[in-house]
Design goal:
The complex is a heterodimer of chains A (578) and B (220). Chain A has 578 residues and is of the alpha+beta class. Chain A contains 19 helices and 15 strands. The radius of gyration of chain A is 24 Å and the shape is globular. Classes of the chains: A alpha+beta (578), B mainly alpha (220).
Chain lengths: 578, 220
């Protein structure tokens, strides 16, 4: 390892490791192909010598009918800059690549997901179990040759619905009249369930350090629990009241975004993105539109860019308010603080309803712009909200909550995540910034027109629950600053590049569009092969990856605080499970 | 139901006692009480749960209809609002929660997903409608339904409750109520009521080759 970390230019890996690495020369692709046996060495060199310390996304692509399975890694420097894309190839029948958990612990859940959905085995992974489906599930659903029970055709639009226009019920073609299929010769009477034992076996038991002579106890929180923000489950090993080990269990809201997305046309995916992080649908639209626009090479008109920024920042205000309210819920201030923030949220929802026709599921962005222009008088309404109403509300919240004795004693110093851990565990968004890493994609790798606005990247240094709360509150203030500038500067003009189209032409290639969503880095990895449907559509969901650090933060805390720690991560289950 | 409706039409109340005395049937007074204190279970599945929270908050405020006491425990709840997509991994828990609710109990399927799978119906791990497992009383359309539709759905449920009679309701019949068998997660979701059908189908039908290959992968 060299003394100085090279952070200026992107490394030329093909020169550095001529035998192991070669540039990805396929049309529309970028980055490097790495020989999979040497993947860990290359990654370690990148982290230690070139400063690529942040592993953003790990996913797989199934190039059926070729016998090729590819794992795609997106790396960043935590000081900012463009991405480095690495790929490791393997075959389809015996898919396996080395696990990167030893270099980037943040890869843990993403590798488990790739194993679960694509059947890629990660050698050396400490806990390679299924994550979104359940142990014993038959097959790996994102493989291109795996067919779901309600399978009609590979791609939409399905012939059954178009052009004849007659619809038949898909249930009628299934022997169970239901969304079910079983392997041949399967007999439920002679089948024995795997149960939860594989999960419980992975939990580490402590050595009674707490000084308690009590037995250690396994406690399940969720999936039906008032403080898990949906259908999320945690399994904790307790020594007295202290958490010895904790494992998140998810997949209770796994709705097959990616499989459905790969059957859909590009535009049909847009409304599905709304339902990922259902508290902030406009941001989800934004990230997906960016990814596809990168592939298409469209230039978005000025006015549309401003509208996009206004909507994304309103979403951030709304989402952060919501999370502050629900954090207080988790602390025991049952529903009263939430009522205050939901009141403001409703006003923002009114704006969304006015522009898009729907309160929550906006489906407002299109490739190259937005679907319709702002109605008359809306900007005045937004301006009043931004300059008058929300700042006053924030002051109220500060008075009631930020200085509140109970809030401070419950939150300060609890659930600490250090800056090194936060980067290593691929935490993003307010989590990362509360740990002292000033990384905001709007500044670190600017997209859209964020480079024009004057705003600060909020950063706090303690990495506890209280700092995460403060980061969110301050970010609302910064968003209001951006909103004021955007409302002042928004020009007249077209709102969509070209004509509105149902079927867009997307050239073959890959693109990764990422934005600073309210929860963290929201990335969309899209692979197109020139057809009307994406070949691969992957969502790098911030809530999901932020959960990787939950176990680290909860260790040695009290079980009652775990609920608050989870609240401070601010997860939305639609995005965790997709 | 207003107190005027509570009064039995055939029994006139003298004018000086009106407003203080009402003569009514047992069914009516029983339902009157139940209708105005529905306790929903605090149970959110997906996007619709956010709209359910919005309905509970100050702007829409379903406390106006006596429904504000959201209970996290099924043992204390009357209404299960299935608010969101039901996945195969979650449905055993939902059925168990339903079994744990005491009678009288009602189920509201909120939104397209709970009613019939919605936009995610074609997905491999989504249950196309919770009514395949537990009986649903009211379906609310929408994706997600607005708070107004949710309140309308709850009021429809109130109307439904008013039509019930002590003589016929299932929780006062002599036969004990059978709990609904909890589905099991195997290679796919398995309803214990369908075990015979499943083993019969799989003996008869050769599965397509792709499924067999996937199955081998999952067991290595």
């Amino acid at each position: 390892m060299t003394d100085r970390i090279i952070t200026q230019a992107a490394p030329n890996l093909a020169e550095q490791f001529p035998e192991w690495v070669k540039p990805d020369a396929r049309q529309g692709y970028q980055g490097y192909l790495v020989d999979s046996p040497h993947l860990v060495e290359v990654m370690r060199a990148l982290r230690d010598q070139y400063g690529y310390d942040y592993l953003s996304s790990v996913t797989g692509v199934d190039y059926y009918p070729e016998d090729l399975m590819e794992v795609v890694y997106h790396l960043y420097r935590s000081i900012g800059g463009r991405s480095l894309v690495l790929k490791a190839q393997t075959n389809r029948t015996e898919s396996h690549v080395p696990s990167l958990v030893s270099v980037y612990p943040g890869a843990e859940f993403q590798e488990r997901e790739a194993w679960d959905l694509l059947g890629i085995r990660f050698d050396g992974h400490p806990d390679l179990r299924r994550i979104l489906t359940w142990e014993g599930f038959s097959g790996h659903p994102l493989r291109k040759d795996w067919k779901e029970p309600f399978f009609e055709e590979d791609i939409k639009p399905f012939k059954s619905r178009w052009p004849e226009g007659h619809v038949r019920r898909i249930e009628d073609s299934n022997p169970y009249q239901n969304n079910l299929q079983y392997p041949a010769g399967f007999n439920p009477e002679s089948w024995s369930p795997e149960g939860e034992d594989p999960l419980y076996r992975t939990l580490t038991r402590g050595n009674g350090k707490g000084g308690f002579k009590t037995d250690q106890m396994i406690v399940n929180l969720g999936p039906q629990h008032p403080s898990t923000h949906g259908v999320f489950r945690m399994v904790a090993v307790l020594d007295g009241e202290n958490v010895v080990d904790l494992k998140p269990v998810m997949g209770y809201l796994h709705r097959n975004h990616e499989k459905i997305g790969e059957r859909n046309t590009f535009l049909q995916i847009m409304p599905f993105t709304d339902r990922l992080d259902y508290v902030s649908s406009m941001s989800n639209n934004f990230g997906y539109a960016l990814a596809v626009e990168k592939l298409m090479g469209v230039q978005v008109p000025e006015r549309a860019e401003y509208i996009r920024v206004i909507m994304a920042e309103l979403t951030r205000v709304m989402s952060h308010l919501f999370s502050a309210g629900f954090l207080l819920n988790d602390l025991g201030a049952y529903f009263t603080p939430s009522l205050y923030v939901i009141e403001e949220r409703e006003l923002i929802l009114d704006i969304f309803e006015e522009v898009s026709g729907s309160r929550m599921m906006c489906n407002y962005f299109r490739f190259g712009g937005v679907v319709r222009d702002l109605p008359e008088g809306l900007l005045t309404k937004i301006k009043r909200l931004v300059t008058d109403r929300i700042p006053r509300k924030l002051e109220d919240l500060d008075n009631y909550l930020t200085k509140n004795e109970i809030v401070r004693s419950r939150c300060e110093g609890i659930g600490v995540l250090t800056a090194e851990d936060a980067i290593a565990l691929s935490a993003s968004g307010p989590m990362l910034r509360a740990s002292g890493v000033p990384y905001d994609i709007r500044r670190a790798d600017p997209y859209s027109i964020y480079d024009r606005f004057d705003f600060d990247v909020v950063v706090k240094y303690h990495g506890d629950i209280y700092d995460r709360y403060l980061v969110r509150m301050d970010e609302i203030r910064q968003s209001l600053r951006i909103l004021e500038q955007a409302i002042r500067d928004i020009p007249e003009g077209p709102i969509l590049a070209g004509k509105p189209q149902y079927t867009v032409r997307v050239p073959a290639g890959e693109a990764y569009g990422r934005i600073e969503a309210p929860k963290g880095e929201l990335g969309y990895y899209v692979v197109s092969n020139g057809k009307p449907n994406p070949h691969r559509y992957h969502v790098r969901a911030p809530s999901f990856i932020n959960l990787t650090s939950l176990a680290r933060m909860s260790k040695d805390e009290k079980i009652a605080d775990v609920v608050a720690i989870l609240g401070s991560i601010d997860i939305v289950l639609g995005e965790v499970d997709r | 139901m207003s107190p005027e409706n509570l009064n039995h039409p055939d029994v006139p109340v003298p004018p000086d006692l009106q407003g203080r005395v009402t003569v009514t049937t047992l069914d009516k007074i029983y339902n009157w009480g139940r209708v105005n204190s529905l306790w929903p279970m605090m149970f959110g599945l997906a996007c619709c749960a956010i709209e359910m929270i919005a309905t509970a908050a100050s702007r829409y405020d379903f406390a106006r209809f006596g429904m504000e006491v959201m209970r996290p425990s099924p043992r204390q709840a009357d209404v299960m609002i299935v608010s969101g997509t039901v996945t195969k991994k979650m449905v055993p828990q939902i059925v168990r929660l339903y079994n744990q609710m005491p009678e009288p109990k009602y189920v509201l399927a909120m939104g397209a997903c709970a009613s019939g799978g919605g936009p995610f119906k074609e997905g491999y791990s989504v249950v196309p409608g919770i009514d395949r497992f537990i009986p649903v009383d009211v379906y609310i359309p929408g994706c997600p339904p607005t708070p107004q539709s949710l309140i309308n759905g709850l009021m429809t449920l109130q109307k439904l409750i008013q039509t019930q009679s002590l003589k016929t309701v299932r929780w006062y019949t002599k036969e004990p109520n059978q709990p609904i068998p909890v589905p099991v997660l195997g290679p796919d979701l398995m309803d214990p009521r369908q075990y015979d059908l499943i083993s019969m189908q799989n003996e008869q039908i050769e599965a397509p080759a792709e499924v067999m290959e996937g199955e081998e992968n999952s067991h290595d």
